[in-house]
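Bit of a strange request maybe. I'm writing a small parser for structure token strings and I need a real example to test against, not something I typed by hand. Could someone generate the tokens for this chain?
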Amino acid sequence: MRLGISRRYHGLGLMRLRLNPPEVMAVINVSPESFYQGSVKSSEAELVNFADKALKAGVRVFDVGGMSTAPFKRTWVPEDVETSRLKWAVGILRREFGDKVIISVDTFRPRVASEVARLGIDIINDVTGLRYDKSLGEVAREHGLTMILCARERTQSTLNPVDAVINEARWSINTAESMGVYDLVIDPCIGFPPLDRDQNLEPNRQVAKKRYDDWPYRDIYVLANIPRIRRELGRPICVGVSRKGFIRELLGVNMEESIWGTLSLHAYLAYVNVDLIRAHDAVETLQAVKMINMVKSCGGDYSSCIETIRKAYKGGA
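Reply from user aminoacidic:
Good idea to test on real output. This should exercise your parser:
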């Protein structure tokens, strides 16, 4: 099952998942080093139970990670370890749920993606936006995969943060299209530093700074301008803010308490019509998205409101 932007449209936002409400992409990590332990699935039963619950709630897209890409922890693992983890998880999801699920793999390493693609994935989610290794685009082309590309600076520039996101996204789009990959989704890369400050792009890398100088405010500013980013790029947008550090920093909360700030931002993202919301708490996020969309559908007369909700949500309340 593919996201399915027709190549004749060159990916101009005409993806099959462009629905109302936006799609929620559930995070499944099979990497013990992941920053949020609640997302880690270490047994087949855990993995199947989580996916089954999410699928029954209406979640179809699952983003599977075999090596944490959290930029502020040392999480590098060898390629064969990441490959083995991903093949285990993807194999289970395909065996248990078949084409009911759309599977994304969160990796920036071409050999890993190529190995796992043979099991039947749909998306490569590259947090470097093809900056780590352009040949990842060749893997996507060979297997007919969608790519989620993170719009990420190499070094911190003096550009307005939104202009920086748009510029980097255009570079990633042009690079992918030059390799014949048109089925593209853009991620504004909330919470990630410039690539030269990411210690996890190679083993034992030493960096002096690990964040943007103004990082929590920068993330909020980019979020506030998601509609502009989507409008200027003309591409589907995927946003991941789930339990990230800027929420904890600005609210003064710990990881477990960050769910409330996370869900508030997910509701906002639904309000501004983001295409994909990447979430650890996928079922809870889907509930928030549904409620926002019920309210948005009721701007006209009352009878139309009732009819719309009943059709979309099988009776609503």
